[in-house]
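Appendix B. Chain record.
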Amino acid sequence: MRMGSAGSSGREERLPSGAEEQLSGGDQTLELTGRHLKRLPGPVCALGSLQKLYISGTGLRELPEEIEGLRELRILALDFNKLEEVPEALCRLPRLTRLYLGSNRLFGLPAEFAQLQTLRCLWIENNYLYHFPRALLQMPALQSLQMGDNRLRALPGSLPRMTGLRGLWLYGNRFEEFPQPLLRMAQLHILDLDRNKIINFPDLAHLKGLRLFSYDHNPVKAPPCVADTVTLVGDGAQELMEAREERLQSLREQEEQDEQEENGSEAMQGTLRNDSSLLEDAEGSFSALECSPEET
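Structure tokens predicted for this chain:
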């Protein structure tokens, strides 16, 4: 299989070695991770039925405009490269659900990024983000957002409009205070604020959806207050959760004891009712015996 057009040297551009074998098996996945590619070969962008493309750690500095030809692409891994910007063409992939952009040289995302309305998972950790990308606020269906090891100091007040968000990783940033917009995100299941500079945490017990909260390596004096359903990771968390488990176990035992006592009480009342019925039957028999001579 030969695909592509003539390159600048006059030779016809081909798919990378081994790529044809991968695709001939019927699997719509192309694995180019670890190869040294100065640029993405044009024939790759002509694979209109491709669904998964992994080009991590190849040294790429840019992507061709032709990448928008991958109309069926669901997963795109571009992490551990040297990208300095996300091209507008990538933002026109209509079926993309997972995008991995970690460990590049990105300072932000273009406004056109909001066109990726099918995106559910975005990993953009270990870049140079000083501000939360505004385009993400227009993507309410995004569920998982990995933004660790960036340069963030604050979050936008309109963050709660991302109603689909369930996991948010913000470790290794520059927060000195707990970001207040997070207090209005009751739908979050996972929140990671490891390795920041937060001294105090507000009461988080009202975040009923929260299941895991990691706050390790922050200069806090005590674990944050969370609901009993939350697993904590951080200084003092183990002792707090052990004490909480003891308290919950005590409550469970008390409930079981109360239930047993209630069942015993109900059984006693049932016995008394049965005894009363027997007495009533006996009294009826005595009455019948007393009346029988008169009836005869």
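Further analysis of this model is presented in Appendix C.
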